[in-house]
Amino acid sequence: LAEKFRQKASIHEAWTDGKEAMLKHRDYETATLSDIKALIRKHEAFESDLAAHQDRVEQIAAIAQELNELDYYDSHNVNTRCQKICDQWDALGSLTQSRREALEKTEKQLETIDQLHLEYAKRAAPFNNWM
């Protein structure tokens, strides 16, 4: 059971490696509207992957709990590692939500700018013809 815990924890830690940095990356600040739409699709795919991974985190926590109930000799290290995984999981969830909000806000701003450019072009055309 302890080996199963270590294996699942290692797989999870490998999966999460680099995810926080990716979620904190502010690549959307210099993106165009089409880039933002692509980033949103990519983020939605990540959210699906994150949701699918929820079950694995729950399994890790369940195994850690079972090891505690069995008075496993190294339960302190298991608990520490499990707590780290759970804390990281919570951080990934909040970072995912923050990035989604930032992407949506940027998309709305760029759509507004695009709309204003279009409106300006429509108003400027008659003026240019008059000139």
What is the structure about, briefly put?
It contains four helices and no strands. With 131 residues, it is mainly alpha-helical.
Distance between the termini: 82 Å
Largest sheet: none
* Number of separate domains: 1
Poorly predicted runs of 5 or more residues: none
Number of helices: 4
- Give the SSE order as H and E letters: HHHH
The CATH architecture can be named as Up-down Bundle
| Overall morphology | rod-shaped
β-strand number? 0
Query: Structural class, please?
Result: mainly alpha
Mean pLDDT, nearest integer? Answer: 92
Q: CATH class, anyone? A: Mainly Alpha
- As a percent range, the share of helical residues equals over 70%
Strand content: under 5%
- Specify Rg, calculated over alpha carbons: 23 Å
CATH topology: Methane Monooxygenase Hydroxylase, Chain G, domain 1
Protein name: Actinin, alpha 4
Pfam families: Spectrin
Keywords: Actin-binding, Coiled coil, Repeat
GO molecular function, one term: actin binding
